[in-house]
Recover the amino acids of this structure.
RNA sequence: GUGCCCAUGGUGUAAUGGUUAACACUAGAGUUUGUGGAACUCUCAAUUCGGGUUCAACUCCCGAUGGGCACCCCA
């Protein structure tokens, strides 16, 4: 008794970690379908695939994303290896990509280089709707050009993916926070302004004043919101070149018919951003709760140098929150092409047939026909019932008689018609019905 | 990190503080070695954990853990 209890508590602990989950069945296909469609769109815009490690040296993120951001200060997963290295699970994909760019000397390729990548990221955050500790991002990045049309291109490609996934009435919140010249001037001005109102400022924002003053702009504190009404805004501090850049980006967006909304309080949580920053907020997120940000990004012209490049690497990127897309009510279930649901249900009957059944399955495999089977069962009725339940369109019935004649019955599950087909002709036959 | 709500088999639900925690679905075995969503029989399987109140706790109280949602932040 005591024993079973112990076993039970042990099993209780053997669950997936908080905020992390198993993805399977319909959800798996939803993800897979999205990734395939997103990749396809990327390829048509000229992006190439890359996959970077899930773990990176911790400094990549601390220097890249920046201390004073929530991601670094409280959300990053770090670990010390047995060899003593300090590694971190990536909380986002941009800094690793820049690291790869520098490490492989991609400055020597024709510029810019355009990459897409996807996979999981990790943040030690408190899980809630649309938020997991392990979550999936699809990222598009253009490295090595500061041209405004690159901003537009990456936005266009990203928005196309969202549209393909079923998002409607898309609009993008956009802002420019300047380059290092105007930005420093602006931050100085902003800091002065807040210092004047220091005693009205909530503690959290006072803290931010020291670490990351820009963040105060999108503070949710009521007090701060009032103060922000009269805060100097970034756009009016932009130097001529930044102003021009921003104006051009907006022109491109207009030309492409992309709805945008200039949000001067948009600054974003990662400190590597410069100039253009943007977010895409779910429009028809439906009744339950506040709309979620489904994508975000911006320009990060100085990240390269921070990560050790001799020259600046101007770059711009667009990240999509895949978990939020595929669970959205508007998500247009994209069927994966590479990984398919079973088309054929293989049924066998009798010892002779069971013996040969794996050979028949091999024929299907060579023909790339996904299938399911019930080799562990023996009677026909229950096997058909399973095929029915799994909603597989065709059943192959392989019994004693067929095994001797080297044939198989192909049964259409929806209209219950069936044909007997020689095994040698099976592929041809299946091709026709597909 | 803060606040609100929740916690019974794999799933969904039941059980005025009082029998052996019930029911349905699912899963497995069988009736059944040749044609379907079936029926029947049997089987596996639960009160999150730890304290307390009580003669008696799934039920009441406290705490922990887990989950959901909101804030914060972000994808």
């Amino acid at each position: 008794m005591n024993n079973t209890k112990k076993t039970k508590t042990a099993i209780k602990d053997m669950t997936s970690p908080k905020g992390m989950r198993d993805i399977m069945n319909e959800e798996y296909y939803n993800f897979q379908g999205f990734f395939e469609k997103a990749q396809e769109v990327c390829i048509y815009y000229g992006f190439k695939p890359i996959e970077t490690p899930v773990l990176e040296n911790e400094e990549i993120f601390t220097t890249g994303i920046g201390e004073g951001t929530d991601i670094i200060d409280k959300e990053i997963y770090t670990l010390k290896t047995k060899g003593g290295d300090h590694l971190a699970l990536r909380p986002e994909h941009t800094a690793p990509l820049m690291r790869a760019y520098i490490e492989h000397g991609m400055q020597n390729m024709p510029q810019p280089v355009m990459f897409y990548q996807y996979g999981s990221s990790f943040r030690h955050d408190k899980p809630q709707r649309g938020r997991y500790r392990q979550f999936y991002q699809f990222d598009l990045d253009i490295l090595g050009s500061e041209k405004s049309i690159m901003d537009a291109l990456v936005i266009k490609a990203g928005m196309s993916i969202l549209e393909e996934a079923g998002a409607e009435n898309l609009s993008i919140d956009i802002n420019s926070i300047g380059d290092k010249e105007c930005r420093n001037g602006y931050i100085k001005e902003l800091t002065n302004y807040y210092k004047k109102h220091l005693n009205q400022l909530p503690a959290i924002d006072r803290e931010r004043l020291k670490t990351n003053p820009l963040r105060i702009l999108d503070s949710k504190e009521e007090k701060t919101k009032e103060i922000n009404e009269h805060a100097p805004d970034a756009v009016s501090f932009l130097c001529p070149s930044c102003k021009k850049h921003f104006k051009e980006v907006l022109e491109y967006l207009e030309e492409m018919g992309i709805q945008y909304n200039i949000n001067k309080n948009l600054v974003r949580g990662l400190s590597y951003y410069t100039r253009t920053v943007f977010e895409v907020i779910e429009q028809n997120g439906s009744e339950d709760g506040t709309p979620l940000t489904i994508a975000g990004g911006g320009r990060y012209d100085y990240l390269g140098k921070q990560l050790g490049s001799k020259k600046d690497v101007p770059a711009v990127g667009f990240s999509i929150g895949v978990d939020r897309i595929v669970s959205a009510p508007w998500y247009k279930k994209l069927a994966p092409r590479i990984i398919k649901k079973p088309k054929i249900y293989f049924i066998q009957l009798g010892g002779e047939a069971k013996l040969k059944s794996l050979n028949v399955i091999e024929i299907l495999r060579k023909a790339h026909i996904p299938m399911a089977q019930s080799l562990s069962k023996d009677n026909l009725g229950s096997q058909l019932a399973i095929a029915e339940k799994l909603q597989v369109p065709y059943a192959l019935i392989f019994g004693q008689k067929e095994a001797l004649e080297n044939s198989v019955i192909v049964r259409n599950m929806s209209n219950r018609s069936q044909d007997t087909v020689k095994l040698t002709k099976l592929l041809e036959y299946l091709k026709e019905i597909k």
Notes: Chain A has two domains: 7-179+239-326, 344-433.
